[in-house]
């Protein structure tokens, strides 16, 4: 299906978005979660270089400028003028995330400054809609997520998936316990789109042909299967006692988490000192149980832009676990323990690895570094 916006409609849509653009994602975070630290996982997705950014807004022909940054190039900027609306959340150099709306269309670039990389979206104007998802020819991991509790793991995944090591029993969560782990990072470097842009891009199985066309992805390719699987996982029915939501922007993730937990919430993520191979880790003193027995866990998905599968459960316990690796690596890992697994698929990866039955004993897992857990303070 061909999707087009007239230049006028595109300009009006993004002129409205521009009126809210003075609130950068960080500012929205601070507004919704005052005095709450942003975890590293979020910072890395927003700004891979972790540098300070500026925010500026320019409106009109000559331009009215609002700058809330620190004088450094880059940051978040919005320009609404005669020919274009530009939103740039880049890093002060070619690349970053940018949106341009006007006679030339809408352009979204979430790349890193390398020609042909990142995600490019063109909407409206003379060019219609086209998206370059980058990383053409790069292998894409399309296997099911181990954190989808309704799926049955394949034999290949049971034997070969490094996430197998992340599952353990709650009774083993104590100082001096040892586990052989490999904290992998998602090699997909997709960043958040501005919420106003993400809301305008279809995200449903019945729109898959349109989505693939928008993202210039060939049907049947690995990229197409990756996107299909992510959407399918987001559309699966929730399990008993669960609330679920797929967040396509940081703002929507914040809104879902605070609507379920309240504004007195905090976000945490696993942090590993450095990237290493699989090694034996020992749980150090200082295991910390987070408040309450409910949490919102957001798992990073493989997609052309940042999408998080978030689900809330009131039958979980969250822990911060200090780990010391045999090779000297230190980590602060987030562990989630599920106290009721009776609704999980009996062939889920955890049951096959731990040799236990659904609903019999709490099952825990560590989270990769790019996943986020929201808990009450």
Question: What does this protein structure show overall?
Answer:
- Keywords: Signal.
- Residues 167-377 form the BURP domain.
- This is BURP domain protein RD22.
- By secondary structure, the chain is of the alpha+beta class.
- The protein is 20% helix and 27% strand.
- It has two domains: 7-132, no CATH class; 155-194 and 237-376, no CATH class.
- The protein contains nine helices and 21 strands.
- It has an eight-stranded mixed beta sheet with strand order 2-1-3-4-5-6-7-8. Strands 9, 10, 13, 14, 15, 18, 19 and 20 form an eight-stranded antiparallel beta sheet that branches. Strands 11-17-16-21-12 form a five-stranded antiparallel beta sheet.
- Strand 7 and strand 8 (130-132) form a beta hairpin.
- Helix 2 runs parallel beside helix 8 (250-261).
- The longest helix has 14 residues, at 222-235.
- It starts with 6 loop residues before the first helix and ends with a strand.
- Residues 1-22 and 51-142 have low confidence and may be disordered.
């Amino acid at each position: 299906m061909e999707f087009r916006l007239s230049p006028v409609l595109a300009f009006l849509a993004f002129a409205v978005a521009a009126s809210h653009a003075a609130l950068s994602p960080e500012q929205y975070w601070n507004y919704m979660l005052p005095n709450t630290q942003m975890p590293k996982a979020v910072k890395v997705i927003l700004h891979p270089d972790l540098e300070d950014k500026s925010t500026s807004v320019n409106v009109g022909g000559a331009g009215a400028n609002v700058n809330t940054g620190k004088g450094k190039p880059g940051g978040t900027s919005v320009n609404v003028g005669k020919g274009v609306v530009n939103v740039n959340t880049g890093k002060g150099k070619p690349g970053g995330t940018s949106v341009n709306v006007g006679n030339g269309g809408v352009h979204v670039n979430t790349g890193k400054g390398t020609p042909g990389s990142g995600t490019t979206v063109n909407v409206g104007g003379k060019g219609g809609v086209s998206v370059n998802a980058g990383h053409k020819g790069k292998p894409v991991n399309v296997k099911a997520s181990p954190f989808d509790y309704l799926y049955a793991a394949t034999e290949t995944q049971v034997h070969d998936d490094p996430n197998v090591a992340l599952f353990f029993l709650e009774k083993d969560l104590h100082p001096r316990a040892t586990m052989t782990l490999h904290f992998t990072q998602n090699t997909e470097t997709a960043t958040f789109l501005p919420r106003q842009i993400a809301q305008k891009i279809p995200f449903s199985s019945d729109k898959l042909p349109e989505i693939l066309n928008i993202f210039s992805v060939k049907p049947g390719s690995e990229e197409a299967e990756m996107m299909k699987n992510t959407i399918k996982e987001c559309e699966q029915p929730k399990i008993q006692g669960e609330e679920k939501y797929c967040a396509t922007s940081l703002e929507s993730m914040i809104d879902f988490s605070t609507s379920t937990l309240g504004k007195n919430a905090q976000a945490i993520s696993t942090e590993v000192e450095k990237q290493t191979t699989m090694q034996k880790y020992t749980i150090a003193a200082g295991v910390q149980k987070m408040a309450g027995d409910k949490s919102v866990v957001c798992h990073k998905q493989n997609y052309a832009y940042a999408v998080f599968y978030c689900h809330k459960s009131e039958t979980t316990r969250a822990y911060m676990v200090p780990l010391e690796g045999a090779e000297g690596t230190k980590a602060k890992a987030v562990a989630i323990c599920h106290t009721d697994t009776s609704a999980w698929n009996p062939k889920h990866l955890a049951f096959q690895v731990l040799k236990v039955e659904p609903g019999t004993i709490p099952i825990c897992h560590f989270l990769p570094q790019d996943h986020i857990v929201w808990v009450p303070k």
